[in-house]
Amino acid sequence: MVTFVAGLTQADLDRVLEYKTINFGTYKNPLWQSLQHLANHGTYHRGQVATIIRQHGAKPIATDLMHFYRERAVAASA
């Protein structure tokens, strides 16, 4: 992802993408909007997971990507 983003030009970011969704039809938007949506969408779902877990009376686990990387590094060094 870092390599992909680092290689983008302003023209790439402004390029309009067209795509179809299952429920809502065809959309068009510039690549830069899709990249912002990517980060925002993941955050939205992390919040949903935490809410569902709380609604079931449990304490949510850490869903932060950095937490995952740290746990993985500890497990790999064990």
Features:
78 residues, alpha+beta
Please explain how this structure is put together:
- Helix content is 62%, strand content 15%.
- It starts with a helix and ends with a helix.
- It contains four helices and two strands; from the N terminus they run ααββαα.
- It has a two-stranded antiparallel sheet.
- The protein has 78 residues and is α+β, with helices and mostly antiparallel strands.
- The longest helix has 25 residues.
- The relative contact order is 0.08.
Tell me the β content.
15-25%
The structure class reads: alpha+beta
- What's the pLDDT, averaged over the residues? 90
- The best one-word shape is flat
Biggest sheet features: 2 strands, antiparallel
Distance between the termini: 28 Å
Strand order of the largest sheet: 1-2
Radius of gyration: 18 Å
Low-confidence stretches: none
How many β-strand runs? 2
Give the helix tally. Answer: 4
Query: What is the string of helix and strand elements?
Result: HHEEHH
Helix residue percentage: 55-70%
In short:
62% of the residues lie in helices and 15% in strands.
Topology:
Blueprint: H1 2-6, H2 10-14, E1 16-21, E2 25-30, H3 31-55, H4 65-77
Antiparallel strand pairs: 1-2
